[in-house]
Amino acid sequence: MSDAIERTKELESSSTTNSKELVSSSTSSSSVSSTLNASDQKINELTKAMEDMRSNATKMKEELSRREEENRKLLEISLEQAQKREEEARKREANLQELV
Q1: Which of 3, 26, 36, 87 pairs with 54 at a CA distance of 20 to 30 A?
Q2: Number of structural domains, the chain?
Q3: Whole-angstrom Cα distance, residue 30 to residue 92?
Q4: What is the C-alpha separation between 14 and 38, in angstroms, rounded?
Q5: Does 4 score more than 90 pLDDT?
Q6: Bias category Low complexity: which stretches (predicted)?
Q7: Closest listed residue to residue 88, CA positions, set 98, 77, 96
Q8: Could you give the CA distance from residue 76 to residue 69 in angstroms, rounded to a whole number?
Q9: SS3 1
Q10: Beta strands in 1-100 (DSSP E)
Q11: What is the residue range of 42's domain?
């Protein structure tokens, strides 16, 4: 009978140890799962931030190209106007030379 009691105590002890291991394993799995979820969330946030930065960079390049084109056109117009003024000044000078 003493053997049966000892065996029962051993089984209870073993059962308690196994339960603790399961709880520890479960906690460990939960912790790992939580860490993985946090990592996935951080990766998603960083990916979105990178996509936003690329989108902003593309928009900035487009704006820069638009402004460069606008400035090029304004420079062409200014050059044409300066050439016309220069030609008019030459004509006036030639007319003055004829009068003298």
Answers
A1: 36
A2: 1
A3: 92
A4: 35
A5: no
A6: 23-35
A7: 96
A8: 11
A9: coil
A10: none
A11: 1-100
CB atoms within 10 A of CB 76: 10
Question: How far apart, in whole angstroms, are the C-alpha atoms of residue 83 and residue 91?
Answer: 12
Residue 100 DSSP SS3: coil
Local structure of 62: helix, strand or coil: helix
Residues 32-53 as b/e (b if ≥16 CB within 10 A, e otherwise) read eeeeeeeeeeeeeeeeeeeeee
33 vs 86, higher pLDDT: 86
Comparing CA positions, the residue from 77, 79, 75, 99 lying closest to residue 87 is 79
User: Taking the model in full, what pTM does it have?
Assistant: 0.53
